[in-house]
Specification:
alpha/beta
Length: about 260
C-alpha cells in the first residue's frame, strides 16, 4: 500500500489539483501548517485525511508525517506538484514487488515549469527527488531544516516518469522564495566553518552561473535559462555576502514566516 503525503500551508490554489492527481493512492494525508486560507477545507472535500501540525522545519514535518503514515510506502508530493497517470502506474509497479527488500527508496525526476516554460537544463531537469520511501527504513536528517536530506537504509532505485512541478508564475515569486533561502545557506556555510577569501564573494556567483548555464546546459532554455541561471548566480552572491556578515556579527533572527514557508 501507498500513502501519499502533502505538506501544506496556504495552498488553496494548488491543493485540489494535487490531491486529484493522487486519487489512485491507498490513502492521502495532508499535514497542514494551520493554513489561513481554504487549504484544509479543500483537502477534506477531496476526502483526504487532514492533520494540522505547526511546522518547526521541513525535515521535522516530514519525519512526523512518516511516523503517522499507516502504509508501508510513503510518497511525498509537494502541493504544487502533480503525479501523472504514468508515474502513478510506475509507483504501483515498483511497490508491488514485496520480495525486493534491497530498495527502500526511489528517486523521481521532475519537470519544472517556470513562467509557463518547461525547463530542460540548468539543474532543473531531471532534478531527481528521493520521495518514495519505505516506512521504517528512511528518515530526514534533522541537521538539514531546508533542502531536506533523506537518511536511507539500503539502496534506492530511480523511476522513469516525472513529477510535474509548477514552480513560478512570475520572476517576483522566484526572487521571493529563493531569496529566503540565502539566510539558511549562509548559516549552513558558517556552521561548516567556511572562510571567505577576498575574491570568494565575486568568484562563487560566476562559478554558479557557469555551472548552471554551461555545465548543466541551462543554455538549452534560451532566454529562460539565461534569466534563471543569472538569478541563481545573484543569490549565490547574496548568500556569501550574508556569510561575510555572519563572520562579523550574527544575523538577526528570521521572522516566523521566513523561517517556515517561503512563498511561491
Amino acid at each position: 500500500q501507498v500513502v501519499a503525503v502533502v505538506l501544506a500551508h496556504d495552498e488553496e490554489r494548488h491543493i485540489g489539483e494535487c490531491l486529484d492527481s493522487l486519487a489512485w493512492a491507498d490513502e492521502r494525508l495532508v499535514v497542514d501548517d494551520f493554513s489561513t486560507d481554504r487549504t484544509a477545507e479543500i483537502a477534506r472535500d477531496r476526502e483526504a485525511m487532514v492533520v494540522q501540525h505547526a511546522l518547526e522545519n521541513f525535515s521535522a514535518q516530514r519525519n512526523r508525517a512518516l511516523s503517522m503514515a499507516g502504509a508501508e510506502w510513503v510518497l511525498f508530493v509537494d502541493a504544487d506538484e502533480r503525479v501523472t497517470p504514468e508515474l502513478a502506474a510506475e509507483v504501483r509497479q515498483v511497490v508491488a514487488y514485496e520480495d525486493d527488500r534491497a530498495r527502500n527508496g526511489w528517486w523521481i525526476p521532475r519537470h519544472n515549469y517556470m513562467l509557463g516554460h518547461r525547463m530542460r537544463g540548468g539543474g532543473w531537469y531531471p532534478d531527481h527527488q528521493l520521495r518514495l520511501l519505505r516506512r521504517g527504513k528512511a528518515r530526514y536528517d534533522p541537521a538539514r531544516p531546508v533542502h531536506e536530506v533523506v537518511i536511507l537504509e539500503g539502496e534506492a532505485g530511480t523511476l522513469q516518469n516525472p513529477f510535474i512541478h509548477y514552480n513560478y508564475d512570475t520572476v517576483a515569486q522566484f526572487r521571493q522564495k529563493v531569496g529566503h533561502y540565502t539566510g539558511y545557506e549562509a548559516q549552513i556555510l558558517h556552521q561548516q566553518g567556511v572562510r571567505l577569501r577576498p575574491w570568494t564573494t565575486l568568484l562563487m556567483p560566476v562559478r554558479e552561473f557557469w555551472r548552471r548555464f554551461v555545465t548543466l546546459r541551462g543554455y538549452r532554455d534560451h532566454v529562460y535559462g539565461l534569466l534563471f541561471c543569472g538569478l541563481m548566480g545573484w543569490y549565490t552572491f547574496v548568500t556569501y555576502r550574508r556569510l561575510g556578515q555572519l563572520r562579523r556579527t550574527p544575523l538577526p533572527p528570521m521572522r516566523g514566516d521566513d523561517r517556515r514557508w517561503p512563498s511561491g
